[in-house]
TrEMBL record:
One of its GO terms (molecular function) is unfolded protein binding. It comes from Circinella minor. This is Prefoldin subunit 2. Keywords: Chaperone. SUPFAM superfamilies: Prefoldin. GO terms for cellular component: prefoldin complex. CDD domains: Prefoldin_2. Belongs to the prefoldin subunit beta family. One of its GO terms (biological process) is protein folding. It comes from the Eukaryota.
Amino acid sequence: MSSKKPTEAEITQQATQKIGELESEVEEHKLVIDSIKPLEADRKCFRMVGGVLVERTVKEVLPALETNFNGIQQVIQQLLQSYKRKEQEFQQFQKEHKIQVVSKQ
């Protein structure tokens, strides 16, 4: 059985999709953080952990949400930097080999 190595285009497409998914997750985290931040710290709060809904308090959940939010933002920035670097490498390759993109109209 041979495993097929993904092409640069496939990798780029996967990175773009992952960035979109992570941006959606960041928005969801932001909405939840904004919703529970003004609440009392000892108020009951529910959180999904590994497919199980668990009861916690706002003061227990909020720091975890903020940590996840910041972590996801960092991953997005790293993916965007990697994507931009690949894009620049591709443009440089096009220049070096005098490749011009022709679009069908």
